[in-house]
Amino acid sequence: MAARRDLPFKGRHFTSEVILWALRWYLAFPISYRDLAAMLSDRGIAVDHTTLFRWVQAYAAKLEQRVRRHLRPCTGSWRVDETYIKIKGVWTYLYRAVDSLGQTIDFLLSARRDTAAAKRFFRKALAQLHTVNPRTVTVDKNPAYPRAVADMKRAGELWRFSRLRQCKYLNNIVEQDHRRVKRLVRSGLGFGSFQTARRSLAGYEAMAMIRKGQVRDIGGQDMRAQANFIAELFLSAA
Question: What is the pLDDT of residues 181-213, one digit of tens each?
């Protein structure tokens, strides 16, 4: 197969099986790079924690991009919220949305929390293959959301019959989902730059979508099927 000439693991000192095992575990569970290195050492594989960091930076965002094509459609009930992520001592904002079933719609890391950032997030979410123009958009009391929705309706970017609901308790489902991201970030001991944060967060969200059962024909609890699926995404044998 011609595509195999450009395998993403070419030149690595470890097999694709080892790299993808480490990638899956780091992105799915609250674990540090040093703890993951110790787990691999217990299996007879000596890997430095800095090497694991480089693997995540090289492949996490690619995983997220490739998973997108295989996601089940989300519902038209969006629950949108933002949470705080610290990057090199500075607070930034992670916009996230799930549907009424808790399925991940999309996410966006932003340096600002304003109308322009809200619009960027909505545009990114609407561009995904697994999303639909929402019937309802549930948000908190952030005044940027009504302005963003009104502007996008006027521009024809958002369905004009979409209903905006500013109701905090209806957003419990997305606020609970934030906790998973926070646990993963804490274990990683923070981020040194915006780009490293963006790549790592993309991997966290991709693995969450897989484990939520959002991928067609892959069970959320079937770790063997998930491993095989991820291996196929990278054109390698599990």
Answer: 999 998 876 799 999 999 999 999 999 999 999
How far apart are the C-alpha atoms of 114 and 63, rounded to whole Å? 29
Phi-psi region of 50 (alpha: psi -120 to 50; beta: other; left: phi over 0): alpha
Rounded to an integer, what distance in angstroms lies between the CA atom of residue 59 and that of residue 19?
9
Could you give the CA distance from residue 90 to residue 139 in angstroms, rounded to a whole number? Answer: 24
**CA distance readout (Å), 208 to 49, 121, 153:** 23, 19, 31
Enter the tokens of residue 233: 């995404």
Count the domains in the chain: 2
Tokens 């995404």 correspond to what residue?
Answer: 233
104, containing H or E segment: strand 104-110
Sheet hosting strand 77-87, strand order edge to edge: 104-110, 90-99, 77-87, 136-139, 163-166
Are 104 and 175 found together in one domain? yes
Which of these three, 158, 179, 200, is where a domain ends? 179
Residue 211: CA count within 13 A, CB half-sphere: 14
